[in-house]
Amino acid sequence: MFYRWEDFKSTIKSLRSLKMRIFVLLLLVGLIPGYCMQYGILKNYETRAISVRISEAQAQLKIIADHLITYTYLQDPSSLVVNAELEQLSNLYGGRVLIISDNLKVVKDTYSISEGKTIISEEVVKCFRGESMSNYDPDLGYIEMTIPISETVTMESSETGAEEVREVVRGVMLIGISCDTIHKTMDILGNKANILQLIMMLIILGAALLLANFLVKPLEKVTVAINEVTAGFSDRAINVPDYAETVHIIDAFNKLLGRMKVLDDSREEFVSNVSHELKTPITSMKVLADSLLAQEDVPVELYREFMEDIAKEIDRENKTITDLLSLVKMDKKVTDMNITEVNMNDLTEVILKRLRPIARKRDIEVTFESIRPVKATVDEVKISLVISNLVENAVKYNKENGWVKVVLDADHQFFTLTVSDSGVGIPQDAVDHIYERFYRVDKSHSREIGGTGLGLAITRSAVLMHRGSIRLESKPGEGTIFTVKIPLTYKA
Ligand code: ADP
What we know:
Elements: H1 5-15, H2 18-70, H3 80-92, E1 97-101, E2 106-109, H4 122-128, E3 133-137, E4 142-156, E5 163-178, H5 180-231, H6 244-294, H7 300-330, E6 339-343, H8 344-361, E7 365-370, E8 375-379, H9 380-396, E9 403-410, E10 414-421, H10 428-431, H11 443-448, H12 455-465, E11 469-475, E12 479-487
Parallel strand pairs: 7-9
Antiparallel strand pairs: 1-2, 1-5, 3-4, 4-5, 6-8, 9-10, 10-12, 11-12
Helix pairs in contact: 2-5, 5-6, 6-7, 7-12, 8-9, 9-12
Adenosine-5'-diphosphate binds near residues 452 and 454.
């Protein structure tokens, strides 16, 4: 038969279904014990029936063997009584009876084939020695038996001269007993068992089909419920309490759903924040431009002043976009990390050199204390963002004549960068939100000094991408300490 590869694949696929497995399992559990029982019972019956037949035949043959001695049949096999008995025996057991005399000559054969012939068979010789045997041949369906024809004689012992009673074997009866009746009974029993087995199979088949459907139903309910959520019909938490396992799956799914909802909400919030942040400078520019257009004969100085304001707004828009792009880069995969060995002392020095002129404008002193030389495998660009954002903030949210102190230290596993300032500090209730995108403690002040609210979000992402940690201590009015701890060797 031509069997297509696709058919084979679909057969394998259907075998992988839980319903199919439960069905096959129930079918096997239902049928195998039935077949084992049928085989065991029939085998047991056969053994038992054969052994009963052997012992019955042995008792009967013993009586006939005595008659053979009584009628001196071995010397003269013409006794009508004995011949009739032998004939009856042969008919009764559906087999052949041979009487063999002590010179191994066949005296009587109920099939009249071997009379007068000599039989030299191991069993017969053994029987003359007193070892009778019975042998069942399952292939031929025959039992073969030998029974000694023995006579009790009283004789004088050649050694002691005392009289003793002995059994002397005068001949052997060899008989083949047919087991047809036993096999017929077994056939009838086997057929009945097969019919019962067939009925059982149909019942088990039906039961297995129903049970497999019933057991798998809750899992199908889970699929339907999840599909409904996926298709958008419902966004409510789903509930299939049928099994502990379905409860676990549904719990995990509901958690995932909750997480997706949080992500979705935060994405929406982010988009609306971005739109707002980008719209603010545009609105200001529009107001400035409109007010210039509304007036006629505007003096050049006013034009200049307004144009300067418009340029400032453009700068702010530019900075927000740059920061947003940095943030998006941080959200990318770890594979985008460009890891090299960086001398942290040199890198910090370079960044501080760039920022000192800005600090000097407000008479803020920026100092750097390098406890030991630090070399780390990091993404240089991202770590530069961390240092510059923290130091820029320490300068921005500082007071006139204030100070900023940067300390770089390391142990055998991590390097630590501490940025402390004498600035305005961060109120306790704002500490939990400080790393959120667009969060600012004092919105208008931050905007005034050119803040986008994205700096610390970028910093935290960069630190986490290096599997590091960031924490802060702050006293409002006194100052803030940011501590960043990053592994010396980057592990993906
Ligand atoms: P921004 O661009 O506004 O500075 P950040 O994300 O860098 O945004 O900082 C968020 C807010 O955290 C700032 O608006 C400011 O209120 C506060 N902040 C950050 N660093 C400091 C600091 N060193 N001292 C006081 N406040 C700070």
